[in-house]
Amino acid sequence: MKIVINAASAKIGGAVSYLRNLLQHLPPPESGYRFFVFLTADTAKLSADVRGNIKICALPSKDASGWRRLWWEQVTLRRFLRRENIDALFSTANFAVFHCPVRQILLVRNALYFSKMYRQMFLGKHGLRHRLAFALRRWMILQSVRSADVLMTPTQAMLDDLRQFVEVGPQKALVNPYGVVPVNSSLLGDQKVIPESPPAAQRVVRLIYVSLYSEHKNLSTLLRAMPLLNSNRPGKFLLTTTVDPAWDGAAWTVTYKEDMALARQSDVAPWVEFLGPLSRQRALELYPAADLFVFPSLCESFGFPMVEAMTYGVPIVASDTAANREVCGDAAVYFKPLGAEDLAQQVTSLVEDGALMGKLAAVGRERAATLFRWDTHVQRILECAHLETNPRDDRA
Fold this sequence. Notes:
By secondary structure, the chain is an alpha/beta fold. 38% of the residues lie in helices and 15% in strands. It has helices spanning 14-24, 41-46, 66-83, 116-121, 128-147, 156-162, 219-230, 256-264, 280-284, 304-311, 322-328, 340-351, 354-371, 374-386; strands at 2-6, 34-40, 54-59, 88-91, 103-107, 150-153, 173-175, 204-209, 236-241, 272-274, 292-295, 316-319, 332-335.
């Protein structure tokens, strides 16, 4: 069976992480599958070590955005599907081939286009050009959903938001959670439990927040909580984060200037270390040293870092959103998404309860190991591809 994977838009962050893990878990040559993976030349460098039945088809970076991508996707890729007698197409990032000549599985993974909170808080602050481009991309995604044979989302919360804009019947929809790479038990170390009565002056609580900076990541609420955590208390709370408003890629947002100003305040700066974007390996090295993982993001389709934190047995404090609750379940405590005071209260209450911290760590490890498996994720995709293997001549 021949399957094309369209990953042309995978350039940074979760999209590249997803692609790397997907390729590592595709079935081997003896399975009879052949895969053609389209991605940019830069991303192809990160995916060079693949099995013999996987062919990497690198595109110039200029062909993976704007009108060039639209032409490539709707014309060039369509011709390839016909010429190579492809059985199925897996489009990994929101946009589909319209009237596709083969069975098509579409992964919609960007929750911003369907989030009420994002529209209310951020979209209106952008200029007209940005808002028009946003509306056009959302329209393209909705048309893609209508064109796909199977619509896949990583969470039910993402699917529910999408259904506010387009009808998706139960036979067409598939909620398929992402996986996580298991951690060697020797790397987990001791459970992240703070003793119930440590010497107060010696208590140092290490918080981490791993993600890429964007306006919906809600860094401001976390920064506003830091003075509350560190005022009039013995011991200190230290935050290490890759969510850096000074990162070059943050300049398009409407929040980065405000967040940089917050970060420089005298009651915030001593307690926060900004690392900026890190390599995958370096980011993973942050988890074993952390006491708590804080995830204030307002809008997620899934949230890889939360599952990574669970895998490492790090208790989680997350904003109270449908997606975060779906992913973390009982492995986290939750705070009002825009409530810095509530965030500080939940963090302090948790670190004062060593038994609860231990429980969250254990529940998280078990949850990650049983619910978030890459082999299961890939198997569901292949099952969808097998439902109909012949190209359909009734399509344009």
